[in-house]
Amino acid sequence: MSWEDDVILRDVTIAGLVVSDRIGREVTSQLDLEEALEASRYASHPYSTHPKEWPPLVEVVDTWELPPVLIERYNAAGGEGTALCGIFPEIRRAWASVDNSLFLWRFDKWDGQCPEYSGEEQAICAVGLAKAKPGVFVEAIQYLLILATPVELVLVGVCCTRGGDGTDPYAEVSLQPLPEYTVPSDGVTMTCITCTKTGRIFLAGRDGHIYELLYSTGSGWHKRCRKVCLTAGFGSVISRWVVPNVFKFGAVDPIVEMVIDNERNILYARTEEMKLQVFILGPNADGSLKKVAEERNVINQKDTHYGGRQSTGQRTPNRSVKPSIVCISPLSTVESKWLHLVAVLSDGKRMYLTTSPSSGNLGGFNTNHYKPSCLKVVTTRPSPPLGVSSGLAFGAMSLASRPQNEDLSLKIETACYSAGTLVLSDSSPPTVSSLLIVNRDSSTQSTVSGTLGTNARSTRALRESVSSLSVEGRMLFVADVLPLPETATTVHSLYSEIEFSGFENSWESSEKASGKLWARGDLSTQHILPRRRLVIFSTMGMMEIVFNRPVDILRRLFESNSPRPILDDFFNRFGAGEAAAMCLMLAARIVHSENIISNTVAEKAAEAFEDPRVVGMPQLEGSSALSNTRTAAGGFSMGQVVQEAEPVFSGAHEGLCLCSSRLLFPLWELPVMVVKGGSADALSENGLVMCRLSVEAMQVLENKIRSLEKFLRSRRNQRRGLYGCVAGLGDLTGSILYGTGSELGAGDRSMVRNLFGAYSRNTESNGGASSKRQRLPYSPAELAAMEVRAMECIRQLLLRSAEALFLLQLLSQHHVTRLVQGFDANSQQELVQLTFHQLVCSEEGDRIATRLISALMEYYTGPDGRGTVDDVSGRLREGCPSYYKESDHKFFLAVECLERAAVTPDPKEKENLAREAFNFLSKVPESADLRTVCKRFEDLRFYEAVVRLPLQKAQALDPAGDAFNDQIDPAVREHARAQCEQCYEIIISALHSLKGDTSHREFGSPVRPAAPRSVLDQASRNKYISQIVQLAVQSPDRLFHEYLYRAMIDLGLENELLEFGGPDLVPFLQSAGCEPIQEVRAVTSTTSPMSQSRATSILPNQAKCFDLLARYYVLKRQHLLAAHVLLRLAERRSTDAGDVPTLEQRCHYLSNAVLQAKNASSSDGLVNSTRGAVDNGLLDLLEGKLAVLRFQMKIKEELEALASRLEASSVATESVQDGTSTESRSTADANLVNIAREKAKELSLDLKSITQLYNEYAVPFELWEICLEMLYFANYSGDADSSIIRETWARLIDQALSTGGIAEACSVLKRVGSHIYPGDGAGLPLETLCLHLEKAAMERLESGVESVGDEDVARALLAACKGATEPVLNTYDQLLSSRAILPSPNLRIRLLRSVLAVLREWAMSVFAQRMSTSATGASLILGGTFSPEHSTVINQGIRDKITSAANRYMTEVRRLSLPQNQTEAVYRGFRELEESLISPYPYDRY
Asked: Residue 1140: beta bridge partners?
């Protein structure tokens, strides 16, 4: 298909709105019969004449004589026997009875067959035909013939069989006697028989009652056939058998005619006395018969609306003769929703009656809610004019020669009304009998929709055309020749939902249902319905007449080469648009015709369609009087804005719109699918989804639409008509024939200016009011171009519609229910709600069509497929290329390769097939359903396609790179980004699958779920993940890289990301952290790690990116940058309370930062200056921050432990006692617990400075040990005797004494002192500590609170000084030398005991040092066998010091004013130490 034939969806949408508007106007113009009759009351004349120059409206096409056997039998009876006749249109048979014999023969053609049935002895008095109820007789018996005699009622089976060629379903009819289905008549002679569409049989008796004939298969005591009286009550039954006839007053009024309204389920009956009775049959025509109304004076109501005025002519009606009712006929809902019955009188008038008590149009009809309750005359239609002959105008037959006193009214013997057509048998003297045929004048229908003002009422009025045919004999019966079953089935499928208000019942034949459409008139149905035919049964034979539709008349005019004035008259009567539509139907050969339209007629019709002399030219509305400034109201528009004239297209465009809208009307706004056995609102499991229209109906409609589109395309290609006028104007708007148009407004007249080009020019006015001139907004060439553009849009709409019908046929042939079984509930709901308009004109319809085609291709290419892609692809490409494009063909070829690869065991062949599919899809990436396809590639482990195809599609969807263009509209950019991200998500889905993330949504096939894949081991998963990442990184798509990196981080694929990440990974990680990392930050040695942290708020995903960035720097040996990143991670603050890093995590970050800083200082990759800066600053800063963090962690632990201890103690206290003091203490403890926990929580949120830790946490909670550690760490400026340090030590010792006594205090002193003691004796206030502890020890010992050893304090001081004895000894010396400090002898003797322990420890440590052992080890050695040689080991100088100190302290002991028993042990200790040091065997005493 060339590019000119491509369907542009935008143009189709524009044309679709025009067609929708035209269909809406068409529906509005279809008047209810009641409205038309009401309007006709004010019309000048309700009847019109058919032009004599035109071909006749009604023609006799054939006549037959009655069958010879029938005439012979009738003559044999001498004309005195009982003879009845009638027509059964359902079986295409006419019938006649003579006495007890019944004859049947074809009424539409003579086939030489006239079977006779004479199984009864009595004369036949009534005959009827009913549809056989299913399940009672064999299937061959389709109908039942009901024969009524004065004695019995008989059922006879009717079997219809097709002919040899199978085209005629009524070729042969045979009668099958049913002897078991006979019932006595009980002496009642039946006058008429009628049947419902469901097969119920009603009989009217001469006794005035209605009977029903019931039949069944018969079981038990039930009879097979029985007769039931439906109208006789209990009293009537009693009187029939009890009361003698002499006592029965009043004559019986027998029923002479019964008709059934099968749509409203009403039975009407007419009696000899012209009473009309109304009976209802129940909602489904299966209920009991119930009389709801009876009207005895119908005739007297007939002039209700017309006031008794004469209808036509100078008649002198005979008032002495009262007219009678000749026939009654129900009106279908197609004709009227409110008028239900028409009665034809003997004077030719018609009375229209209703069974509804309300006045006015019901506006609709619903058999479920409407209940008849009365019978009243609504309006009366005047009789047709007298003196009409075929082809003559009114009054052509001279009436002057007739006698003055002759009655000029019609004398109707028989009449028949059916679907808007009335046939009257007129026997008014002195003329011979003639047939008056009255049907709707089609020329008035074409002017209804466009009429405004006071003339609207007259154009809406019902106007009928009257034709007269002379006939020999007397008319007995009239019947429609129903359409052939094929045509009727098509028409019924198309119009059942629209014209019959959804009324659909399998009991009513499609032939009868489609025949009702004739009531709508010819204009809207002549493209689909054949010419209407009637068969007239008269006493002299049978006659078939045919009604020529307007298109048939036009065709005859073309065939006869009628003069131009006659054609002009035809166009004037019907209007240019309507006549152009008929020309179009003839030229495109889409009209329903018995004979093939000749090429001559088609060409002449095409020329007329393009002739501007008959269809006109596009012009401006009111262009003939542009200078006229009168308003619509008749005044002048002075001071008012004159509305700009708008383009009005020619009759050719109007005809194309009419023709197109009438073709599409039966399906345009209706759903294409229906659910059988379920509800369209809630699809049930048992519901079957199928096309609403039959395949045959869609085929017929498609052929007509394609023929019309083909004609338009040929005229365009040949540059015929306006196409030739605008062929050289392509530069006017870029392209006249295929240019772009804007959105369509409401109503195609008012929106043409905005539709087909921007040609608008401003109206100018020059001079005063008298010299105003208007400039034409459009030139003639522009108007022609606009019309061509509009017609081209409609042509594309027709092409698209034909393709949609072809697609629906193809889907129906493959069973839609089976194709959509893989759809989810929402997709199925969208499908059953999709209208044909949406399928043709909307993106949604295109998407659903693509989904259906995918399901269809799945049927062929699936594991249990029925063929190959080529089997159905060729049909789709030829039948619906706008739905199934070349790209779709390649896509499904690829799907076929994938299906073959899925079942191929050979790995090499599997890979080749997968690559072939990949090559197909690479050519059409933008049109492929990659979600499904890439899943199948994943099944085959062909990940190259999984990566490259989505990236190709993303490039095709955004060729200009709008997704990352910051210079364009944000909405456009976001739309492009969303489209690209949908493609990227397919690749990420593959990573999810390989990672084993089952929570991620899997993309499955729209037809069936993805096939199960083999389970992969972890090594294979890692291999494929690496393959996907490497392929993905090769793409130059920067947006995709960012999307990929984020997805890999979310999936936990950090190692693969760091290993295979592209060169843009670092910028991505830096931008994800919202701030790029500086190469080197200047840090001086004076920067204090205790200063306030410059932490910033970092989101969780940013923290993850920073962590990856640090790992990346470590892998790339960029240690300095890694240290900076780790520092930021350690200091980060989080806006999410649930994502706050713990102190342990921060400690881990800082520890790693310190490690990286150390590695950076030892790396050779940095220049010397940089290395110096790092060595002097960054490492110290990191180590300092790490130390402060450890203080913070310790404080947090202490606070949590404090809170736990307080909670435990409060619980224990409450369980022991209860009181006011206890309650107050518990409250205080609870407050303290809350405060401690809050402070601990504060510490866990972010890093604190050492100042904050000391002042806000350690000191308030008396954490003196940590305070001391922080003071010593901070190199507090005060000396060892500083009051801050002394006070802190004192508080710490007091705290220990209060909790555990001297033992605890000594333990704390050992632990803290040894931790902070520098080794040179500085930093510890030894005098304060020694004096404090010694006093406390003595007090506690004297008071008996605690048993304290003489050496406990001394040994604690030695442990705090890390075993250094001289600082401790010096401390004791200073204390003992000051009498003011130690006035108490008991305290001094205690200090001397401690000094003795220090001296002994000193001696042992010196000896142990010389012996390379510990002090304990030395004591063990000295306590054993000691040889004289050991004395040489001890250093002589230290021994002298110890000896001198021992001697001095012995003197000090003697000076104490204490009893000897208190000082003797101390004195002896010093002396023994002295003696041992000066003795050659110094330690033999130990």
From this structure: none
Query: Are 344 and 384 a contacting pair, CB within 8 Å?
Result: no
3-state secondary structure of 377: strand
Q: What is the mean pLDDT of residues 1438-1467?
A: 81
Nearest to 1324 by CA among 1375, 1274, 1290: 1290
**What angle in degrees, to the nearest 10, is found between the helix axes of 943-957 and 930-939?**
160
Q: Are the CB atoms for 288 and 350 separated by under 8 Å?
A: no
Question: Which alpha helices (H) appear in 924-1010, and where do they start and end?
Answer: 930-939, 943-957, 970-995
- CA–CA distance from 874 to each of 7, 112, 884, 1149 (Å)? 19, 50, 10, 67
Tokens 């399928």 -> residue: 839
Which residue has 């904050």 as its token pair?
A: 1252
* pLDDT at residue 248, rounded to an integer: 45
Indicate if the pLDDT at residue 247 is higher than 70: no
1031 CB-side CA count, 13 A: 21
Q: What is the CA radius of gyration of the chain?
A: 57
DSSP 1424: S
d(CA 857, CA 891): 10
Q: How many CB atoms lie within 10 A of CB 1197?
A: 13
Say whether the peptide bond before residue 430 is cis (omega within 30 degrees of 0).
yes
CB count in 10 Å sphere of residue 784: 24
Distances (CA, A) of 140 to 157, 168, 174: 9, 16, 10
Euclidean distance between CA atoms 684 and 665, whole angstroms = 30
Q: Which backbone phi and psi does 107 adopt, to 5 degrees?
A: -100, -15
Assigned token pair, 1174: 């790092």
Q: Please give the structure tokens belonging to residue 271.
A: 């009696």
CA distance 678 to 658: 36
Distance of CA 1025 to the CA centre of its chain: 35
CA distance 873 to 10: 26
Minimum mean pLDDT range among 227-236, 300-309, 1125-1134: 300-309
Place of tokens 């970092």: 1098
Burial class (CB in 10 A: 0-12, 13-18, 19+), 690: middle
**Measured between alpha carbons, how far is 1433 from 1422 in angstroms, rounded to an integer?**
12
Q: Nearest Cα to 601, choosing from 537, 555, 565, 540? A: 555
**pLDDT tens digits for range 782-834:** 888 888 889 999 999 999 999 999 999 999 888 888 888 878 888 888 888 99
SS3 content of the chain, % helix, strand, coil (to 5): 50, 15, 40
pLDDT of residue 625: 37
Q: Residue 1085 — pLDDT band, cuts 50, 70, 90?
A: very low
Q: Are 692 and 808 in contact (CB under 8 A)?
A: no
Long-range contact set of residues 315-318: C-beta below 8 Å, sequence gap at least 24: 315/386, 315/408, 315/409, 316/405, 316/407, 316/408, 317/347, 317/407, 317/408, 317/409, 318/407, 318/409
Between CA 1011 and CA 1004 the distance in angstroms is 9
CB neighbourhood size of 1275 (10 A):
6
Cβ–Cβ < 8 Å for 331, 342: yes
Mapped onto helix, strand or coil, the DSSP state of residue 1039 is helix
Contact (Cβ atoms closer than 8 angstroms) between residue 357 and residue 373: yes
> Is the pLDDT higher at 966 or at 1014?
966
CA distances from 330 to 82, 341, 418, 487 (A): 29, 4, 8, 24
pLDDT tens digit sequence for 381-430: 888 887 554 443 333 333 444 454 555 677 888 899 998 899 998 877 55
Alpha-carbon distance of 116 to 1457, in angstroms, equals 168
pTM for this entry: 0.69
Residue 351's pLDDT band (cuts 50, 70, 90): very high
Pairing of strands 266-271, 126-131: unpaired
What whole-number distance in Å separates Cα of residue 1298 and Cα of residue 1334? 15
* Tokens representing residue 931 in the block: 């979600």
State the DSSP H helix or E strand holding residue 121, giving kind and residue range, or none if neither: none
